[in-house]
Amino acid sequence: MAERRKAVALISGGLDSMLAAKVVMDEGVHVEGLNFFTGFCVEGHTSAIRNEDQRKPKRNNALWVAEQLGIKLHIVDISEPYKDIVLNPKHGYGAHLNPCLDCKIFMVDQARAWGFMEENGCDFIITGEVVGQRPKSQRRDTMPLIARESGAQDRLLRPLTALNLPPSLPEREGWVNREHLFGFHGRNRKPQIELAKRFGFDEYAQPAGGCCFLTDEKYSAKLSDLWRARGQRDYSLDDIMLLKVGRHLRPADHFKVIVARDDGENNFLEGYRKQFVYLRTESHEGPLTLIDGCPTPDDIELAARIAARYSQGRGADAVNVSAHHPNGVVEQFRVVPIGPHQVPAAWHV
Ligand code: SF4
Known about the structure:
Shape: elongated
Distance between the termini: 62 Å
Strand order of the largest sheet: 6-7-9-8-10-11
Structural class: alpha/beta
Helix content: 25-40%
Bound molecules: iron/sulfur cluster
Largest sheet: 6 strands, antiparallel
Number of helices: 12
Oligomer: single chain
Radius of gyration: 24 Å
């Protein structure tokens, strides 16, 4: 009896990686999933915070996909080594600050180099890539580059687009039958939707704009602003989490005001109170506001006026605002809410 082959599938939580894993499972291969946490993932973190997103199911889609497929999922935090990919992408950025090509090379390399393959006796790696789906990272000429630079070489199988590529080792060795693979290409999603139907998947995640916040124009603008204002290209995990939440206003390079936009964000920002100067409107209901940076006393008063503007007291003559410092000191302000015309457009990050 032929030896049962094993493979590791990169699972983003989206439809393509789900289908790719399923195609290979149907070839009799034992598949385990691998999901990477970069800190920028849209999945299962801040995506569920806002009130307007309440109708979306609150779940980690990668876990959900693994459950649907009946495979084991390994979730690995690569947020620290991933920094170098975001800060210094060898192949540059996509439309925004998304280093997709370097990211794909890195993820395949992590799957290969992490030791998982050896430890678990995996013979090859599966991804849901499709030739022509993304202008920069998923082109016919970048597919071999990803295989080469990641070190995976021909142990990298893309079942959805395999017929557009030379046969990989799993195909040549007969571990999977090339005739059962696909030649999807381009941005048209119909073939994937048809295949999902054929597999009986009537529910799947369709993340708008990709798998991470780096493809988002507004998010990328906030990250650029952070680097510019601090005079260095670097970030912490807290920085990139906070960029996903709240209204960000930067009156000056040395400080920024982050105002919660609804109850969900309010609750999320509560978790950061010990690290920042934070403001509460006392005389009127209002959002929690954090001040990021090194504010002077005048800056804190200005931030209090901004917080008042987004409170129920925006039309009042004055609003009481308390400012809480990380050392426990609490200051009280009575401020005039800043008027809409006193907030320059340039403050909105
Ligand atoms: S969208 Fe984000 S996670 Fe996906 S390949 Fe691009 S940089 Fe990587």
